[in-house]
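As a warm-up, study this chain.
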Amino acid sequence: MGRRPVRGHRRVPHTADVRIEAWAPDRDGCLAEAVTALVQTFADTAGASADGSTTFDVPPGPDEDLLVAVLDELIFRLETEGTLPLTTAVEPGDAGLRVRWRTVGADAVELVGAVPKAVSLHELRFGPTDEGWRALVTVDV
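Now compare it with the structure written out below.
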């Protein structure tokens, strides 16, 4: 069996909801991969060009809480602004994380799956492994 790429993501089979897995050498890269993985479960962003950007801060907390906060922000902005991130950059902030998104309107991409409603805390995993960082998340649709 081949070695997993250093950074990436995939959709994991799940009976009713959406389950994603993301991995990267570091926590911030893994968070960014998780955002991309979630977007790709419901939107085809191929060929889309960013027409906006946003930056937000996530307060300090346990790693799993940081993951939930970032994914919840994606869902919130999709519902309230109709925008979704095309690219994600995560870096340490003054007192937590600073997240920067290059965004596009949801009406500019093709929706190809069920839109996420909430991040489930059931069987949520996010933390370091022997190969870097790994996230495993179920999202209610």
